[in-house]
Amino acid sequence: MARVPRPRAVIESPYVELDRAAWARLRNSHPLSLTGDDVRRLRGTADRLDLNEVEEVYLPLSRLLNFYVGATAGLHRVTTDFLGERPAKTPFVIGIAGSVAVGKSTTARILRELLIRWPDTPRVELVTTDGFLFPNAELERRGMLDRKGFPESYDRRALVRFVAAVKSGVTEVTAPVYSHLTYDIVPDEHIAVHQPDVLIIEGLNVLQPALPAPERRSTLALSDFFDFSVYVDARESEIRGWYVERFLRLRQTAFADPKSYFHRYASLSDEQAVDRATSIWDSINAPNLRQNVAPTRSRATLVLGKGPDHSVTRVQLRKL
Ligand SMILES: Nc1ncnc2c1ncn2[C@@H]1O[C@H](COP(=O)(O)OP(=O)(O)O)[C@@H](O)[C@H]1O
Ligand SMILES: CC(C)(COP(=O)(O)O)[C@@H](O)C(=O)NCCC(=O)O
């Protein structure tokens, strides 16, 4: 009897990749433009925000997210109907990952301002994971003060508990607050999240897998609660330049404040400041990017690839 040939497994990339022009063209099928209100809200999200970039890249993304929000709500309805329960509104959770200085906070703020415009997501809350860093005293006790931003420098269980509580509809969920001024967790200060339509959670390590077996009490990873995730990507040499640039700007603003932990940097010459920033980058942020952050890129739903001026040149969207 003739043997039926087995189909060969084709290992396909789970992503569809679009260059900027192809992504921007998607806008034609979803006529979108910024209103005066949008522009007012967007001002202040970045030092030099290009509104054309917002229209061509972030507006179509907010449309896609709006479709996902609708489809995800439908899926939740299926589960509650099946269980015979009363439907409850579940916040849609978006994770935003990427290196220090790649533009996560800016992306998160732009998306928040754009998502607010859709009638089904007027309440969007934004939380950064730095509030879940261990306080400096604890990091020092663990010998990790020079590893801020590495996965182990966060209270990962508290972070998972926080997102799980928001997602399960708890009326008020609080998170600790980190200050870039004092370079530490602010004692007795919290932010509160009240049943948002969308929670955006932004941080270096939001796409990290669950803790390995000996350390974990739960097998859940933060990303198990995500409905969508974005990895903001760029060449390491560009990100390093953005980090140094931001450091030079902070020298004239935040570091100039006598209360700043980095006040001693305010008096550095340009050359000394570049040396200092480069040395922090090379000893902490670059190794963390290579060892921990970049390896999570392939777990994102969408990858935004940026060119040297922060403009998005390439978009990868998961289709499988
Ligand atoms: N889309 C953008 N357009 C222009 N500048 C940007 C954009 N995204 C980020 N930047 C700039 O790059 C630097 C790093 O961005 P930021 O959002 O603070 O990064 P992260 O949160 O990843 O550390 C900041 O100086 C910011 O103003
Ligand atoms: C606070 C950060 C760890 C980022 O935290 P995130 O919000 O991504 O969780 C980072 O911005 C940082 O300050 N890194 C420390 C490098 C240094 O010690 O200067």
Fill in the keyword field for this structure.
two-stranded antiparallel ribbon, alpha/beta, 38% helix, Rossmann fold, binds adenosine-5'-diphosphate, seven-stranded mixed sheet, 9 strands, 320 residues, binds the ligand CC(C)(COP(=O)(O)O)[C@@H](O)C(=O)NCCC(=O)O
Mean pLDDT: 93
CATH class: Alpha Beta
Write down the Rg: 21 Å
Judging from the principal axes of the Cα atoms, what is the shape? Answer: globular
Q: Which structural class do the helices and strands define?
A: alpha/beta
CATH topology: Rossmann fold
Spatial strand sequence of the major β-sheet: 1-9-8-7-2-6-3
Number of domains: 1
> What's the CATH H-level superfamily name?
P-loop containing nucleotide triphosphate hydrolases
Extended strand count? 9
Number of contiguous helices: 8
Main location: cytoplasm
Subcellular location: Cytoplasm
Pfam families: PRK
Keywords: ATP-binding, Coenzyme A biosynthesis, Cytoplasm, Kinase, Nucleotide-binding, Transferase
